[in-house]
Write a structure and sequence with these properties.
The complex is a heterodimer of chains A (99) and B (506). Chain A has 99 residues and is mainly alpha-helical. Chain A is built from 5 helices and 2 strands. The longest helix of chain B has 52 residues, at 152-203. Classes of the chains: A mainly alpha (99), B mainly alpha (506).
Chain lengths: 99, 506
């Protein structure tokens, strides 16, 4: 398979494109997850004014979310991404080695 | 305020930094070492170094100052500066490492196969680097003034001189050690005092909590055009991180693409720990140092709190500790930026006339002196906002170049150049006018203060549209193999090698 990729045959191209596409899909999924949660917070604060001032655990909700909760969330997203990106690469490597 | 403790702290940090720099001199001999420490750096060390280099005056002093003045809306600054690494992780980290590029101009040349694109990228590296350096120098001036009562220019000249000494003596190898050390110093310098401050607040429970309940401050989306400003800030910080010259250079010191990803997750963790702290200082400042808002010195709240809340010799000791952390912040970010500017300028502009190492030294010195001049001349924008404006320029230029270059085969040299120039011109115009005090009212004011929400999409659209009308570079398929396939596979990845572009003086 590696010779197909080196010679840029149609088959080789298909394999490389599918790797790029699977990694891009994964990246877009992570960013979509980020946009739909963290990215929606300003919209939420704008649409539901009560969320700007309500207290949770004695702390105003925006401060709790943006000052504390967001950080472990970002690290978790990053960690999940790395595992899945490495899995995509393993699948590609197996394919190339087998061919 | 006890000036002796403050000066001692600043001298100690500078001495340790210089000490490691001189020690590192023995290790770094070749030009390659000078730029990127020859890739022998371990992941946690590398992550600490990235954190150390990244956490600047804006993070250490500026965030607390902004939280003190403007409250909930400014929590997005540290959030964005952390989330920027998540975006960098998923789109850029591994492919950029695999590209083998030292610098953003290297990446531009590799991907679109154009020396014009390289030259435009080099100019943008200098622009972003200088915009980012100016507030670092100003933060240093502010710190020395708070600690000792000296005029602001004293601190600015001091930090510029020390950075030049470090850069000219040690190069990047020593800087990796220095930066890693400085992340931990900065974390400790905020973490230890905050315990004493919170204890003191707890003992005096209930004092002036009224100021924490002001609606404009405690609730988000205050002020005119708040939703636009918030989203523009989010876009600039989330997308700007990947385009910062001193951040990109760090990825070359990872062993391979996989290590680059793992390092980036570690960076996310380190930043997440650090950024829990500055907002606490802002909140406490609201209670104990509210007068700083009126006197326009809110950026010094981190430095003021220990003496105001704890006092005595313990207060002096804690003041010295935060002073040391603050100086670590200026030194690490500034030296990283000066190295990046110096590397790019010496490679692209001076390499015909001078040998590698000397060109690098000359270029670094020029960069630092130019910045010093600007720092002395420009008006006082809040440190964190000034830094975020550099992010806006990076997000409007290198972000589209990297995202489209890595993930879209259609990007062409002409598209890249026109997009970089458009995004760079629009964002830099807004940023420079804000830095020199232009503040129109209404919509134009909002756009100039936070341009990213308009300039980033514009740059993307221009880059894509022009690319569609022109032909992609010949080697684009080979480049895609290089950017995306794991290194252990034996594949033809093309012949581009940035190290070949660096003349070897030995």
């Amino acid at each position: 398979m590696s010779s197909e990729i080196d010679a840029q045959t149609e088959l080789g191209e298909v394999y490389v494109r599918s790797l790029v596409r699977s990694q891009l899909r994964l990246a877009v999924e992570v960013v979509a997850g980020l946009t739909l949660t963290l990215g929606m917070l300003p919209m939420l604060f704008a649409a539901v004014p009560r969320t700007r001032s309500m207290n949770v655990l004695g702390i105003p909700l925006p401060w709790l979310l943006l000052g504390l909760v967001v950080y472990p969330f970002l690290v978790t997203l990053g960690w999940v991404y790395v595992r899945r990106a490495e899995r995509n690469e393993r699948a590609f490597s197996d394919l190339v080695d087998r061919g | 305020m006890n000036a002796v403790a403050g000066v001692a702290a600043v001298v100690a940090v500078s001495a340790v930094t210089l000490g490691i720099g001189v020690f590192g001199l023995r290790i770094s001999r070749t030009t390659g070492d000078f730029y990127v420490a020859s890739r022998t750096v371990q992941p946690l060390m590398n992550a600490s170094a990235i954190g150390g280099e990244y956490l600047s005056a804006a993070s250490f002093l500026g965030v607390a100052g902004l939280v003190l003045t403007r409250g909930a809306d400014t929590l997005w600054y540290p959030v964005g500066w952390t989330a920027g690494y998540l975006i960098l992780l998923v789109f850029v980290a591994a492919p950029l490492r695999r590209s083998g590029a030292y610098t953003l101009p290297d990446f531009a040349q590799l991907r679109v196969e154009s020396l014009t694109a390289r030259a435009v990228s080099s100019a943008l590296v200098v622009l972003i680097g200088v915009l980012y350096l100016v507030p670092q120098f100003q933060g240093a001036g502010l710190t020395l003034r708070t600690l000792t009562g000296a005029q602001p220019w004293v601190g600015e000249v001091t930090v510029a001189s020390i950075v030049l000494l470090i850069v000219a003596s040690g190069g990047m190898r020593s800087i990796t050690l220095v930066q890693a050390f400085q992340y931990w110093l900065k974390l400790v310098a905020l973490l230890v005092p905050v315990f004493f401050l919170l204890l003191s607040w707890h003992r005096a429970s209930g004092s002036s909590v009224a100021r924490l309940q002001v609606r404009d401050w405690v609730e988000p989306l205050s002020g005119p055009h708040a939703l636009y400003m918030t989203y523009s800030l989010i876009l600039a910080t989330f997308l700007g991180t990947m385009g910062l010259p001193h951040v990109v250079v760090r990825f070359y010191t990872n062993r391979d693409g996989r290590a680059a990803r793992r390092t980036t997750v570690a960076v996310l963790g380190l930043l997440s720990c650090f950024y829990l702290l500055p907002p606490l200082y802002g909140v406490l400042g609201r209670v104990y140092a509210f007068d700083l808002v009126g006197s326009g010195r809110s950026d010094s709240v981190v430095l003021e709190l220990p003496s105001r809340m704890v006092g005595g010799s313990l207060g002096n000791l804690l003041t010295a500790l935060v002073g040391a952390g603050a100086f670590a912040a200026f030194l690490s970010t500034s030296s990283g930026l000066v190295v990046s500017i110096g590397g790019v300028v010496s490679q692209d502009l001076l390499s015909h006339r001078l040998d590698g190492v000397r060109a690098f030294r000359v270029a670094s010195s020029l960069g630092a002196l130019l910045t010093l001049g600007l720092a002395l001349a420009s008006s006082g924008v809040a440190v964190a906002h000034a830094v975020e404006l550099a992010f806006a320029v990076a997000a409007s230029t290198f972000c589209p170049l990297l995202l489209l270059g890595i993930w879209w085969r259609g990007l062409t040299a002409v598209g890249a150049v026109v997009g970089l120039v458009t995004g760079g011109t629009l964002s830099a115009t807004a940023v420079v006018s804000t830095m020199f005090g232009a503040a129109p009212t209404g919509w134009w004011g909002a756009v100039l203060a936070q341009p990213a929400l308009l300039t980033v999409p514009t740059a993307f659209v221009v880059m894509v549209a022009v690319s569609l009308a022109t032909t992609p570079p010949r080697q684009v398929s080979r480049t895609m193999v290089r950017l995306h396939t794991p290194e252990h596979l034996v594949l033809d990845r093309g012949s581009y090698h940035p190290e070949a572009a660096v003349p070897d003086p030995s």
